[in-house]
């Protein structure tokens, strides 16, 4: 019998339930996939707590890797026995499961050098890092960035990729242990925001100029410091709201602080085109397979321990990537 984590009402981690589910045969355009590992992402908490409103009851999770066991009519991009990974949004919701039916369109074949556990730990985070590094800004060697949550799953990949591009990386963390992890993955400078003034320290590190780009996945509590860390005509990239949504503000603020730019991108819009997704995935896989980017799986959970996994994630006890091992 297959199992899945589902929830019947929005709320805290305690609403998650480990349930038996029936998985039938795949219809047109779908496959039956046996999961080997499932990704744990902060975005999962937004579905669970109601930030992202969906019909309930529902499954949870949007990223996993496994083996194709059956294919439906019209599926020709993957075959039975293929190892694949996927990430997405509504179209892939329900990844917290031992096996499931899933549309074939989001599936990405895995090269031999990439294990399923590694894929589950990096597909969403890695593709996010890929578009941030390759699509958001025309980086050139010598540019500087401020990277919030530098010891998180996305942060560790972005830091390593940024160093490949010759960038100076200033990371922020909440503890000294996380600072050590961030430094080990490429951060040139690390700011502990629990006792340091982020914007002031950034100005000191950049001779008063500020950074070219800020990647802010924290949101509410870091927004002002992020703006104050940018150089004139710098770019603020809002990639998450871990501390809550950014309060409404007058766009005139961007002019006052140096004619700043601001964007709120979403991964879905950078992998919607199959050719672009394939290009980003190929570059990501190549870096990982060659060892230029390391994927650290720092937490492993059983699927039935999803409640504890979410508690750890939201209390910021985790570093790097976390997965469920099936």
From TrEMBL:
The keyword Oxidoreductase applies. Residues 11-324 form the Enoyl reductase (ER) domain. Signal peptide: none annotated. CDD domains: QOR2. Pfam families: ADH_N, ADH_zinc_N. InterPro entries: ADH-like_C, ADH-like_N, ER, GroES-like_sf, NAD(P)-bd_dom_sf, QOR-like, Quin_OxRdtase/zeta-crystal_CS. The keyword Oxidoreductase applies. It comes from the Bacteria. Keywords: NADP, Oxidoreductase. This is Quinone oxidoreductase.
């Amino acid at each position: 019998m297959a199992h899945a984590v589902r929830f019947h009402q929005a709320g805290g981690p305690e609403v998650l339930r480990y349930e038996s589910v029936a998985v039938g045969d795949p219809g047109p355009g779908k496959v039956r996939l046996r999961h080997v590992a499932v990704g744990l992402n902060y975005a999962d908490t937004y579905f669970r707590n109601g930030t992202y409103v969906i019909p309930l009851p529902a499954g949870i999770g949007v990223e996993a890797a496994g083996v194709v066991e059956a294919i439906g009519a019209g599926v020709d991009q993957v075959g039975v026995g293929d190892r694949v990974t996927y990430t997405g949004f509504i179209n892939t919701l329900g990844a917290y499961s031992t096996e499931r039916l899933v549309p074939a369109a989001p599936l990405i074949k895995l090269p031999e050098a990439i294990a399923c556990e590694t894929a589950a730990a990096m597909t969403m985070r890695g593709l996010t890092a890929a578009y941030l590094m390759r699509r958001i800004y025309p980086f050139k060697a010598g540019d500087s960035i401020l990277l919030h949550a530098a010891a998180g799953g996305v942060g560790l990949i972005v830091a390593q990729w940024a160093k490949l591009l010759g960038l100076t990386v200033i990371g922020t963390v909440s503890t000294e242990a996380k600072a050590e992890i961030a430094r080990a993955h490429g951060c040139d400078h690390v700011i502990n925001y629990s006792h340091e003034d982020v914007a002031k320290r950034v100005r000191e590190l950049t001779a008063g100029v500020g950074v070219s780009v800020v990647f802010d996945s924290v949101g509410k509590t870091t927004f002002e410091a992020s703006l104050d860390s940018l150089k004139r005509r710098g770019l603020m990239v809002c990639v998450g709201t871990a501390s809550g949504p950014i309060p409404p503000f007058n766009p005139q603020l961007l002019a006052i602080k140096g004619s700043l730019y601001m964007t709120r991108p979403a991964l879905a819009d950078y992998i919607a085109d199959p050719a672009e997704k394939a290009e980003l995935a190929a570059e990501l896989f190549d870096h990982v397979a060659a060892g230029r980017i390391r994927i650290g799986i720092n937490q492993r959970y059983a699927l039935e321990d999803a409640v504890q996994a979410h508690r750890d994630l939201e209390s910021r006890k985790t570093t790097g990537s976390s997965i469920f091992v099936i």
